[in-house]
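lol forgot to send this yesterday, sorry. struct tokens for the thing we talked abt
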């Protein structure tokens, strides 16, 4: 894998050659990845995976026509043929009034902000194996756990370099470390499974494998002997590890390309009061050691913290340059980029600000409801906002968690769910999208 300086040099070479052979504008992106993962099952080594790869992509414009090509061969001579092929492709492409590089005055200038995304720790496979064994052993030691789907540990490194023909050239690196376990409890047809994991940028921040394993084991045992429930309308409490998906549906609905295609259920809701006035949802690409932090976006624009929802109101769309031109706005620093194709959009580190009530407070007064810990399937209509997903978790009776439940379906409409959403005060930054415990009243539940 190339160093960051080498990667940036290769990208600059591609862009320079593109301009020399007739491109009006161009950008090039390099992405290199290296990872190692070790998994065990029943205390025996099951798999060791190591991978390393790198690719570079070129996008160029001839008038209003554009094309993209990519390659994994970093030899300068090979890259020259890539440029010629891309120019030929662009000349045959249809015109696009909205395509083009990002506005030059919005590009990140100077040094990239220090986000501490790359770790110097580089554990050997033997160390990963020990961590994998420890997390699985802790999970299997929980009384009631009867089998294992395995435990694992991993490390990875990603390097990104981006160069444009109108003045942007920069790069950054990230590292990742992870630990996970998945186990089963019970016997025969009554067995239940659950898991736990933790991922971080720096190894020093990762949770002890014994704690992760014990959490996986206790979760699996708690799901034993699920009861059937009658269908009806009831309040639902969402555990933070699944409640984040609700915010994920919001993010998908405010993506500029979806708005430009008129395929979002929030199409006419800019500035609308979607949530309670106390709700605030933040996108923060500059969080140090954040799982989705980045100093610049996929088009070279500076990134910055954004309130996606402020006072319960939707503040704007997530825009790359193309969707911004189509909608008559300005790009917001949310462009995402792979090696091939044009940029899309994505949020970064998103969180819903905590409320004032505890999770226990949210359950008080619920005579009969659900505490949902797992969601299954993808039954969400992004055009209408209709929501229907399989779920499992626990019955809530008289304000307390009771028996496990499984094979149920919860349904509603995302606009109604947003309006009814109440957050607890237990926000923890653990994932890419973080929410506290959430309560939503009035959802339909179909029992098994």
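and heres what i got for the seq, position by position
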């Amino acid at each position: 894998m190339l160093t960051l300086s080498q990667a940036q040099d290769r990208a600059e070479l591609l862009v320079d050659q593109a301009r020399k052979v007739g491109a009006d504008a161009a950008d090039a992106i390099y992405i290199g990845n290296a990872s190692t993962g070790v998994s065990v099952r029943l205390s025996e080594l099951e798999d060791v995976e190591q991978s390393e790869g790198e690719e570079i992509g070129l996008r160029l414009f001839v008038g209003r026509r554009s094309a993209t090509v990519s390659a994994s061969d970093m030899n300068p001579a090979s890259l020259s043929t890539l440029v010629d092929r891309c120019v030929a492709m662009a000349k045959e492409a249809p015109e696009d009034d909205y395509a083009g590089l990002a506005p030059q005055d919005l590009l990140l200038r100077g040094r990239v902000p220090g986000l501490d995304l790359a770790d110097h720790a580089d554990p050997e496979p033997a160390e990963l194996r020990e961590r994998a064994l420890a997390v699985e052993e802790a999970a299997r030691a929980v009384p009631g756990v009867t089998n294992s789907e395995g435990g694992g540990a991993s490390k990875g490194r990603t390097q990104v370099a981006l160069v444009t023909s109108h003045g942007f050239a920069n790069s950054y690196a990230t590292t990742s470390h992870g630990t996970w376990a998945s186990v089963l409890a019970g016997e025969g047809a009554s067995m239940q499974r659950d898991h736990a994991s933790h991922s971080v940028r720096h190894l020093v921040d990762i949770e002890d494998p014994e704690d992760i394993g014990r959490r996986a084991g206790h979760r699996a045992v708690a799901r034993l002997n699920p009861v059937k429930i009658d269908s009806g309308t009831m309040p639902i409490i969402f555990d933070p590890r699944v409640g984040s998906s609700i915010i994920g549906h919001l993010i998908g609905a405010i993506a500029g390309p979806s708005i430009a295609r008129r395929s979002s259920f929030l199409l006419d809701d800019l500035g609308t009061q979607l949530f309670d006035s106390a709700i605030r949802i933040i996108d923060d690409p500059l969080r140090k050691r954040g799982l989705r932090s980045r100093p610049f976006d996929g088009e070279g624009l500076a990134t910055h913290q954004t309130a996606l929802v402020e006072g319960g109101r939707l503040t704007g769309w997530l825009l790359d340059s193309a969707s911004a031109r189509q909608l008559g706005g300005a790009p917001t620093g949310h462009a995402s980029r792979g090696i091939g194709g044009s940029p899309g959009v994505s949020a970064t580190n998103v969180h819903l600000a905590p409320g004032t009530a505890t999770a226990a407070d949210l359950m008080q007064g619920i005579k009969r409801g659900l505490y949902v810990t797992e969601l299954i399937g993808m039954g969400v209509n992004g055009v209408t906002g209709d929501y229907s997903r399989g779920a499992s978790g626990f019955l809530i009776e008289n304000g307390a968690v009771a028996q496990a439940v499984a094979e149920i379906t919860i349904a509603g409409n995302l606009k109604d769910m947003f309006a009814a959403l109440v957050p607890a005060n237990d926000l923890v930054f653990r994932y890419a999208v973080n929410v506290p415990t959430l309560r939503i009243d009035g959802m339909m539940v179909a029992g098994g």
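DSSP finds nine helices and 19 strands in the chain. anyway ping me if u want another try
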